[in-house]
Amino acid sequence: MVGGLNSAALVRALIDTGFLEVRMMARKREIYLIEEDAAVAPGAEPDHHEQIRMIADVCHGLAGALSAPFFVRNRRAAEALAWRWSSSGDEGRRWIVSRLRQAGPEYVAKLEAIVRHVATPPGAVTRDPG
Predict the structure, then answer these.
(1) Which three-class secondary structure state does DSSP give residue 32?
(2) Rounded mean pLDDT of 46-57?
């Protein structure tokens, strides 16, 4: 655990944020942006339908981990995060990192610990290893 933070907490944070953003975008029919939102590719024209689809894909791939029995939940959550990271495109990875960055630096550090073996797209999780 990084600073007492477990993998299931990351999954919960992403799912909670994802549901709120999808709900807001569906209601307002526009993309939800957070300051210079890293979840949207630079120069891309934001489309709320595509953003909803991407968030739904990310969160759907994580949701099952939280229903695992308590004694394996954190391991399943870490596996789900690593799998979702490896199977998401750059946009999905940018969304994951930007939302965990909002939750706090310890969330990003935990994500790095989980996915360090997976290639990182430019601008996603970047930290000096030293």
Answers:
(1) coil
(2) 82
**How far is the C-alpha of 31 from the C-alpha of 12, rounded, in Å?**
22
In terms of pTM, does the model score above 0.90? no
Bridge partners for 5 per DSSP:
2
Nearest to 77, CA basis, from 86, 68, 85, 90:
68
Which whole number is the average pLDDT over 43-62? 81
For residues 116, 17, 56, 63, the Cα torsion angle rounded to the nearest 10 degrees is 70
Q: CA angle, corner 4, sides to 7 and 18, nearest 5?
A: 40
Q: How far is CA 31 from CA 34, 66, 83, 90, 98, in A?
A: 10, 27, 26, 18, 15
Backbone phi, psi, residue 5, to 5°: -90, 130
What are the extents of the domains in the chain?
Answer: 7-31+38-115
Exposed, middle or buried: residue 66 (CB in 10 Å: 0-12, 13-18, 19+)? middle
